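Recall that a protein's primary structure is simply its ordered list of amino acids. Everything else, from secondary elements to tertiary packing, is in principle encoded there. The following example makes that idea concrete.
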Amino acid sequence: MTMSTEGAAAQAGAPRGAPRPLDRRARRRQETIAEILDIATDVMTEEGVNGLSLAEIARRLGVQPPSLYKYFPSLMAVYDELFRRGQVEHLAVMREAMASAEPGLGALTAGLEASGRWLLANRAIAQLMFWRPVPSFEPSAEAFAPSVEMVALERAAMADAVAAGQLGPEADSDQAIYLLSTLITGVLSQAMANEPDLPWGKGRFTAQFPKLMKLLVAAYPPGTRGATQALMTDHRPHALSESPTIRYRSSSAPRPGTVAVSSGPWCRAPCGPG
């Protein structure tokens, strides 16, 4: 059997162990999936995250709704891939920003600022990732994995800040991550609900971010141990003390392109900016 000239050239030029290039059919399938997800993002941006439907995706794609089942078995599967894709992009943005900054508070601040810019620029996906606009949606473990990595990055930066004497020892804790999440999410919720078209650092809310980072230092001042424990610990029985799982739900569905002021993040691990 003789190999074609193109096949031999491709094989010769491919590094050993490298993944084989997709054939035309597989490549077209990936392109269609990407187009479906882009259309879904547009619909969520225009109609609200919970306004997405397979029928509308199919209409904009120019196919009949049953044709979508070749790519996604359900609307929840579309949400799951949107969630996963958004988390991967968001994690990469944070990781890059933190890697280029000084370890500790510098890296944490840079990562959170980069996160805030990305979330404001991708508001519909941000709502799906960090709020609860679709109460029945639960991300798969694979889709949720980048969020766990994000928290690990933030927790490592907090530990570096403690080691550098920028924060007190108690900042290296889940409680500190919860506090950080509350501070950052408040800024993002207010900005998305009231000034959705303004970039990060402009307007009444995201411009407060530097002061919020000072509040973190005030809550965990360097060179102290135990000084903030009474403030950060609630000894009354409640749900959070029974399980490390945390879920915050929006009190109402957001308007298209925005989130309600009272909404907050949701995640199954200690949360970061969302």
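The beta strands are 246-247, 266-267. Residues 82-227+243-267 form a domain with the Tetracycline Repressor; domain 2 fold (CATH 1.10.357).
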